[in-house]
Amino acid sequence: MIDYKGKYAFISHPYRDNPEENKKSVDRICKYLAGQGIIPISPLHLFSFYENDNNREEIMNICYELIKISDVVFVFGDSEGCRMERKFAYEINKPIEVFFNEDY
Description:
By secondary structure, the chain is of the alpha/beta class. 46% of the residues lie in helices and 14% in strands.
């Protein structure tokens, strides 16, 4: 992996399939990255208080704006939202790092 110290990293991670465990996972990831000097941008932390998907399109639009201002997109899953975020990042030529469960 490239050295992203001091850079903004958008954290793409599943949520809906297991909210409690996914929150724990993203907390662990963000703490680790912050400890490495990387600045995590976590939409899961921003929007996990919603109890349903009524705002999904609006949330995804905000995620796209956050991806635009990030230096890199770290993808930690293969949910529909992760695929949409990864596709958007690819389309705007944003660096993408994909991780699997054993990576974090």
